[in-house]
């Protein structure tokens, strides 16, 4: 697959059913989406193809990002979400950085969760790596896993 050569990805096994992982992904993004001590604030998540995805991050010393603005390309409840920042809501073109793919699959008694960032070219991928894709997305993945497992334990 051609997109894979400019791809960065993280994955983990979560000891929680896929339905709970999906609920954490859709309903609790403010709690896991960026590495602590930063925090995320969901501005809008219109979970349908063409719907707006907008999240802003805030740092512990008053730093702010974005908002990270994009649209949903594909939403298959409980299985897969694909977003891109190549467009803002209303199919307004903007300078692209990546397409993100969030995948959920049954694995054993739990869920295999994979988060992938596909970039348009090697330079953008290298810039994302330099920005701290690892360890940033690794920590985000761990926060997501822990929150999903805690939610499963209390369900």
List keywords for this structure.
single chain; two-stranded antiparallel ribbon; 37% strand; alpha+beta
Commentary on this structure:
The protein is of the alpha+beta class and 155 residues long. The protein is 29% helix and 37% strand. The strands form two sheets. A seven-stranded antiparallel β-sheet has the order 1-9-8-5-4-3-2. It has a two-stranded antiparallel ribbon with strand order 6-7. A hairpin with a 6-residue loop joins strand 2 and strand 3. Helix 1 crosses helix 4. The protein is globular, with a radius of gyration of 15 Å. The mean pLDDT is 94.
How does the overall form come out from the CA principal axes? globular
Q: Span from first to last CA?
A: 39 Å
Poorly predicted spans = none
Largest sheet: 7 strands, antiparallel
Strand content: 35-45%
Give the structural class. Answer: alpha+beta
Helix content: 25-40%
Mean residue pLDDT: 94
The SSE string, one letter per element, is: EHHEEEEEEEEHH
Total beta strands: 9
Strand order of the largest sheet: 1-9-8-5-4-3-2
Number of helices: 4
What radius of gyration results from the CA coordinates? 15 Å
Describe the secondary-structure layout.
Elements: E1 7-14, H1 18-27, H2 29-32, E2 39-45, E3 52-58, E4 68-76, E5 80-84, E6 87-88, E7 92-93, E8 99-107, E9 110-118, H3 122-131, H4 133-153
Antiparallel strand pairs: 1-9, 2-3, 3-4, 4-5, 5-8, 6-7, 8-9
């Amino acid at each position: 697959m051609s997109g894979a050569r400019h791809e960065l990805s993280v994955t983990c096994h979560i000891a929680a059913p896929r339905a709970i992982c999906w609920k954490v992904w859709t309903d609790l993004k403010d709690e896991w989406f960026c590495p602590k001590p930063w925090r995320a604030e969901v501005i809008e998540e219109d979970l349908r193809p063409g719907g707006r995805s907008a999240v802003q991050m805030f740092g512990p010393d008053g730093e702010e990002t974005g908002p990270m603005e994009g649209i949903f390309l594909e939403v298959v409840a409980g299985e897969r979400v694909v977003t891109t920042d190549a467009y803002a809501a209303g199919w307004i073109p903007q300078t692209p950085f990546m397409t993100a793919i969030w995948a959920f699959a049954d694995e054993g008694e739990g869920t295999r969760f994979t988060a992938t960032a596909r970039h348009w070219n090697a330079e953008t991928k290298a810039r994302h790596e330099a920005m701290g894709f690892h360890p940033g997305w690794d920590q985000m993945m761990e926060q997501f896993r822990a929150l999903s497992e805690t939610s499963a334990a209390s369900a």
